[in-house]
Automatic annotation (TrEMBL):
Organism, as annotated: Agathobaculum faecis
Protein name: MarR family transcriptional regulator
InterPro entries on file: HTH_MarR-typ (IPR000835), Tscrpt_reg_MarR-type_CS (IPR023187), WH-like_DNA-bd_sf (IPR036388), WH_DNA-bd_sf (IPR036390)
SMART domains: HTH_MARR
Domain HTH marR-type: 5-137
Keyword Transcription regulation: yes
Domain of life: Bacteria
Matches recorded under Gene3D superfamilies: Winged helix-like DNA-binding domain superfamily/Winged helix DNA-binding domain
Length: 158
């Protein structure tokens, strides 16, 4: 069982690294990389989102969000505005320059997903998606519990 867990994590890690490299290569001409595409799509889907809500949405720390948004601002894909009621809060909006890029990013993402799942039957894809979603939710719950000082009863840390 121990070796199986290591193999699962190895494959997840390899997929994640390869996906980052793929997005970096495909978005190079747009002057953004894999790190910014996630934020660009979330801003598109939630125009006017605050920096704090964007961090929460992706389980990112504030520094990561700030760096990604700054890069998108520099490239002219988003703009930020202070909240009229609370000047500490910054809202993020897509610019017109970003609109064509959004379609391109979705196409890249769809192609990559299709390439990775080619040969799998639809029920296999759905089962895989469900398993990955469950693993992601469990990992988030475990980290939240550990951050709150709890330990996971299934895996004692001592």
């Amino acid at each position: 069982m121990e070796h199986q867990a290591i193999t699962i994590l190895r494959y997840i890690s390899l997929l994640q690294r390869n996906t980052r490299r793929y997005f970096d290569l495909m978005l190079e001409q747009d002057q953004i990389g894999s790190g910014q595409q996630f934020f660009l799509l979330r801003i598109f889907e939630n125009d006017g989102i605050s920096m704090q809500d964007l961090a929460r949405l992706g389980s990112f720390d504030k520094g990561t969000v700030t760096r990604a948004v700054q890069k998108l601002v520099i490239e002219g894909y988003v703009r930020t505005e202070a909240d009229p009621q609370d000047k500490r809060v910054r809202h993020i909006y897509l610019t017109e320059r970003a609109r064509p890029l959004i379609d391109h990013v979705y196409q890249i993402r769809d192609y990559w997903t299709e390439a990775l799942t080619r040969g799998l039957r639809e029920e296999e894809k759905q089962r895989l998606l469900g398993a990955l979603r469950d693993m992601a939710e469990r990992s988030s719950a475990m980290l939240e519990a550990l951050s709150g000082g709890e330990t996971d009863p299934a895996f004692p840390l001592s």
